[in-house]
Amino acid sequence: MIKAQSVRKVFGSVTVLDGVDLTVAPGEVVSILGSSGSGKSTLIRCINGLERLDGGSITVDDFDVSKPRELAEARKRSGTVFQMFNLYPHMTALQNVTLAPVEVLKRPKAEAEAEGRALLASVGLADRADAFPSQLSGGQRQRVGICRALAMKPRYLLLDEVTSALDPEMTADVLDILAKLAKEGTTMVFVTHEIEFARTISSRVVFLEKGRLVVDLPTEQFFAADGGLANPRIAQFLSKMRKD
Amino acid sequence: MRIDLSLLVPYLPFMLEGALLTAQVCVLALLGSLIVGALMAVARTSANSLLRRAASIYADLFRNVPFIVQLFFFYYGLPEIGIYIDAFTTGVVALSIAGGAFTSDVIRSGILAIEPGIIEAAQVSGLSKRKTFTKIVLPVALRTSVRPMGSVFINLILTSSILSTITLNELTGTAKIVASDTFKPFEVYVVLLIAYATLTYLVSLLIAALHRRLNRDLGEAVR
Q1: Is B98 within 8 Å of chain A by CB?
Q2: Strands across the sheet with A212-218, in order?
Q3: I need a surface site. Which of B110, B151, B159, B221 has the fewest CB within 10 A?
Q4: Which of B213, B223, B62, B43 is nearest to B142 (CA)?
Q5: What mean pLDDT do residues A38-53 have?
Q6: Average pLDDT score over residue span A58-81
Q7: CA distance A233 to chain B (A)
Q8: For residue range B31-72, what is the model confidence (pLDDT) as tens digits?
């Protein structure tokens, strides 16, 4: 269970997160929507401990991310996939995937490599395992990024606008993989601008505006005329996103 | 004027000994300045402001004082306060400290050039600070800093000739002796020119190979 309670985050004079509560239970796929600057990515970065909280608390399976010792445990339970991939440029796809299992989980190298190859094969990259990031397309890099997160067998997958840097064709490839993961019961927290996709895979949708969590509803209700759409800000946001 | 290199033949074993000493000093000093430089680069990019300031003072101090002055201070100055170090050790230490100041600059800029997201990816995957540094930060920084570091290293080899001023008979030191023995400075220094050029050329070849190896994913673009 990921539990965020009254989370506050301030950058200088700007309050980016202003008392956000969010609970994600195992098996859920929660999409976080909101216009840019609403605090979506910051919320993800608070959950994985990349940003320090200015108020409130976040626990991942009861491990408090603001305590250094517990953060290590919390991080073992969640995997993050980034918008800009952030692959290690000096390592092959396979090395990117096996680094943390070997160094953090102390898995035997041969075992980690066999699993890494299987993971890469599952996203259609069996023959690219020994390629370096600079030799891969954006879509391929992001698929490696997903494998790198999955290699740690996380209980929660945090996805921060993972298709925003990809063209539509590559986006489709990556979304297919995420859909498959969702079907397999992977718990995901999903920051995205892909509204239609969020609608198909999410069990819940939350909407952030100016650092406040405005709406938190089951997907059906969020997109229902008398549910989330009854909120004029959400209706406006959705119609704008669909036009783009 | 007649140029006759053959009259240097009897002195070759002596000069070779000097060359060997230069090579020894340089290998140790290169390693030393790499280690000092890497540590200082870490300190200068650390979150601890005290550490940052101390390392900056170190780099500024040793970059802004002529090497010969540093060397004389270590070799002739320190004995006055009771610290005696032999010429060889003094040479290696002085070169490592001075070279480390420049190397720290080069490595530091390599570290600052790293995409922060790459380091964040390592952090969230649970890698410890130390592992993040040895597995990600340093190798990625070296990709860009290995070439400028090569210039620093070549400079270090050239600077090692100054060690002849503290009684260390390395390549330049032996050449000076041979020149005054034979009264043939032209021939002696021609040999010296070629010897240093060969030594530094070998280092630049090595650096180029290392650069290619560290950036092997980029293929032709880095050749």
Answers
A1: no
A2: A78-81, A156-160, A187-191, A29-33, A204-209, A212-218
A3: B221
A4: B213
A5: 94
A6: 93
A7: 32
A8: 999 999 999 999 998 889 999 999 999 999 999 999 999 999
Chain A contact for B117, CB < 8 A? yes
CA–chain centroid gap for A142, Å, is 12
H helix or E strand, kind and range, residue A6: strand A2-11
Prediction pTM value: 0.84
The DSSP code for B136 is I
Which has the higher per-residue pLDDT, B6 or B33?
A: B33
Beta strand A63-64 pairing with A212-218: unpaired
- What length is written for chain A? 244
The whole-number pLDDT of residue A244 equals 61
Q: Taking CA A36 as the corner, what is the angle to CA A34 and CA A40, rounded to the nearest 5 degrees? A: 55
Q: Which of A72, A86, A87 sits opposite B120 (nearest CB)?
A: A86
Note whether B136 contacts A78, CB cutoff 8 Å: no
Cβ <8 Å between B125 and A148: yes
3-state secondary structure of A57: strand
pLDDT tens across A173-219, in order?
889 899 998 888 889 999 988 888 889 889 999 999 999 999 999 99
Domain ranges within chain B, ordered by starting residue: 25-167
pLDDT tens figures, A105-137: 999 999 999 999 999 999 999 999 999 999 999
Q: How confident is the model at residue B25 (pLDDT cuts 50, 70, 90)?
A: very high
* pLDDT tens, residue by residue, B170-200: 999 999 999 999 888 898 999 899 999 999 9
How does DSSP assign A120-143, residue by residue? HHHTT-GGGTT--GGGS-HHHHHH
Which residues in chain B are contacts of A50 at CB distance < 8 A?
Answer: 120, 123-124
Q: What is the ipTM of this complex?
A: 0.92
Closest CA to A205 of A193, A184, A220, A194: A220
Q: Measuring CA to CA, how many Å separate A86 from each of A10, A241, B81, B190?
A: 25, 26, 54, 53
The answer to whether the beta carbons of residues B87 and B167 sit under 8 Å apart is yes
Nearest CA to A149 out of A124, A169, A178 is that of A178
Q: Topology of domain B25-167, per CATH?
A: MetI-like fold (1.10.3720)
Structure tokens that stand for B91 in this block: 């040479």
Residue A169 backbone dihedrals phi, psi, to 5 degrees:
-65, -45
Q: How far apart are CA A209 and CA A18, in angstroms?
A: 10
Buried b (16+ CB within 10 A) or exposed e, A187-219: bbbbbbbbbebbeebbbbbbbbbbbebbbbbeb
